[in-house]
């Protein structure tokens, strides 16, 4: 029986820690998990057409991640450039 399997039992006992690694370093400004989920769904709908096959979903999801990382890098560089300009 899986209920008595030692590894599965041990994993289940620490289930309160499961989602923490996925949100480590992410500031959500008092957003609830439902709000985060709805926000993620909204982002995905801009990249992934409804009813698409799994291989297309993965390709589009990777594109979403790439675009988000590029935007974050741009914003970080822009912010650091503004702070340098203000210094002078």
From TrEMBL:
Keyword Transport: no
Gene Ontology biological process terms, A to Z: regulation of DNA-templated transcription
Gene Ontology CC terms, in alphabetical order: nucleus
GO MF entry, a single one: zinc ion binding
Alphabetized UniProt keyword annotations: Metal-binding, Nucleus, Zinc, Zinc-finger
Main subcellular localisation: nucleus
Compartment list: Nucleus
Stored InterPro entries: FHY3/FAR1 (IPR031052)
Role, per record: Putative transcription activator involved in regulating light control of development.
Similarity remark: Belongs to the FHY3/FAR1 family.
Stored PANTHER family: PROTEIN FAR1-RELATED SEQUENCE (PTHR31669:SF307), PROTEIN FAR1-RELATED SEQUENCE 10-RELATED (PTHR31669)
Protein name: Protein FAR1-RELATED SEQUENCE
